[in-house]
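Let us work through a complete example step by step.
Step 1: write down the sequence.
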Amino acid sequence: MTNRQQQNQDNAGVITKLLAAVVIMFAFGFALVPLYEKFCELTGFNGRTENIAAMTIDGMVVDTSRTVTVEFTTRTDRGAPWSFRPETRSITMHPGELKQVNFIVENHTNQNRMAQALPSVSPGEASLYLNKTECFCFEQQPLAAKETAVMPMRFYLDPDLPTSIHRLTLSYVMFDITNQVKDVATTAAR
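Step 2: predict the structure and record it as tokens.
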């Protein structure tokens, strides 16, 4: 085998290895989002909360020896055609106590819209102890033209909440998903 043939063969090997590395990096990047979401779900990292209703526990002991302040913040996706706010900015509660807070959304357009709220909790560790039994964030929310809707959220803090947590913030971002829902409906109709 000549030097030229050996060099071509070596170059082909390097190119094959580089292409394999690119494919592996792409696959890893593609899998990173679901892996990160699962990690956040399991650990409460990034303040993510589960999007399923928690069960109320009959006979749960309310820890009246301490109180926790829960603050509520809201914002809308950039350009969303509505206003969104909590009915109250904060409450004080005991771990184990079931509370309800209402959120108000107003559709300012003459069109029906579809919204989806995504929650997060700060500090992130507290998300492991926040249990929502009812929440508008579990489902997509249809908003009729010019409608004002009151959306309840019922929750409790697990009595095992670390005693170092005296205050937590539950934040919601309300996204306009009208076009995505239309796209899904259009695709399903085909």
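Step 3: interpret the result. Residues 47-185 form a domain with the Ctag/Cox11 (Pfam 04442) fold (CATH 2.60.370.10).
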